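Record 1 of the preview.
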Amino acid sequence: MSVPPTSSRQQAPLTGRRILVVEDEYFLADDIGNALRTLGAEIAGPVGHIEDAVEMLQDGGVLDAAVLDVNIRAEPIFPIARELRARHVPFVFTTGYDRISIGTEFQDVPLWEKPIDIVAMAQNLASLVGGQPHDSAQALPRSEEMRECEPGGDGQAQDNRGVR
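->
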């Protein structure tokens, strides 16, 4: 009795998908990127600063999904999450905090508490992307929320990379 061959999509369900990774813990970001690459993804980032995440959203490249750490260098990731939601890009959160830290706005978003099972999280993300068309509608104008995140906007985004 022969075993039916598995399709390449089953083996690498994120093939051809561009996934944004926003995580400020270097080794965790690297592990997440490697797990997603194993599933066939192209990684946008990883980035460890809100400003860099804003740039990734503005660069015009298609994003098919994202992994977002809830707290990036003491700044909440929610403006990025709102922009991804406006673009209909699925995402998951990672955090060292309880779900209550997220609030009701994002209660429907999968939350992976640290230390996370990276392989299971990557497979969860793949399942979210699986039902979506390959080219998500990305050419949407930036929301007002994103403009507020830009340096000089109404938000509080600052470049603190040189500050320790």
